[in-house]
User: What shape does this take?
Amino acid sequence: MVNQEELLAMVDEAISRLPEEVRAARWLLKEREEFLTKVRREGDEILELARARAERLVQRTEVVRNAETRARQMIEAAREATIRMRRQTEELSDQKLGNLERILATTRDTVTAGRLRLQETELDREKEKMMAEEIETKDPSSQQTEAFLFDQDDTDL
Assistant: This one.
């Protein structure tokens, strides 16, 4: 027999956990997008600052070379920071999604086990019903003699 209250409690717990994990995953993805936007904006600002400086220093070749070198370094540093932050965000997202996947698998397994228990209970009831029907359909006089046969009464020996 399956305890219906226990099964319902497990299903309710799975349902209550699911939205929390989904909300957390959505929040994480939103944070990631906001973070990437911010990093891109900062990178664009850095690029713009580098261009403005470079334009002011165009008058001298050596100054221009230094400015270009520094601008390239800043661009590369911004790209590396963006790549690093993107990887970290993706790793965190992957961890959260992995946790969600494990919770969903556990929930699925729990629901499957509960359904199997319910099916087994239904099958047992059907077997009992069929056995009762077989007993009722037998000849009433043969039921009485079969019920009281002993080894000594068996004439085939």
User: Anything to note?
Assistant: Residues 142 and 148 are 10 Å apart (CA to CA). The radius of gyration is 38 Å.
